[in-house]
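Form 7-S
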Amino acid sequence: MEQYLNLLKKILNEGDFKDDRTQIGTISYFSLQTRYNLQNGLPIITTKEVNFKAILHELLWFLKGDTNIRYLVLNDVSIWNAWPFENFKKSSDYKNQDINQFAELIKNDSEFAKKYGDLGPVYGKQWRNFNGKDQLKEALKLLKENPNSRRIIISAWNPNDVDKMLLPPCHAFFQFYILNGKLSCQLYQRSADLFLGVPFNITSYSILTILIAHHLGLEAKEFVHVLGDAHIYKNHIEQVKSQLKRKPYNLPQLKIKKRYQNIDDYSFDDFELLNYNHHPKIIGKVAV
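Output:
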């Protein structure tokens, strides 16, 4: 994962200080591209531990069209809790609960989860129901029937729905490409939190590409990642410098144990990560 470490170095060395929505402040660089060869293993950061379980559950959540955090919370994944919690704090039902108590309410009370656990029409909604269009289904159909098409695209950015989302899509638009029986995917990400978010995004879309290739009997070739506003938050700078002192390990392999007729039928237990060696975790606070 030298490509990722090179991104960190470039932003630290060439980026500019820039204010942002969260008021934390960033070092920012505009417009970057990295390429990850999926035939060399699963691109997952090894210079710190990345939560594979959370990445895979989140991806399956997207694929099923879900937008409520209850599925994630029930599977001990907390990466999306902060946004609905901040929304809950503005309600008359808020009684000084902390975020952990909020998660317990989501887990144990389905009606509470229905009221306060939804993020609005975010990724899964747009992938599976963009103004009535199931984009994932259409993409799979094109990949099967017209693999040379230049229109195999899925967009999470729906201008009509952006104002209804607790967090508008950062990874906004992706395209599939087939050549000689090998599948590649390119993602455009408008906003890229290099320390916390981007490691998830690299691995998530690499898994997605490997899964779609597996599902269609193709070979996964490459994930291409295009970043718009690529940034390191000011409160992550020391963590990034620590990470850059570490030497990467070899990439692990991703095994998918079954092939189903329906893309919706894949579950967490159908995937296995083999030989993931990594350095210890480095903690950083998410900017909400």
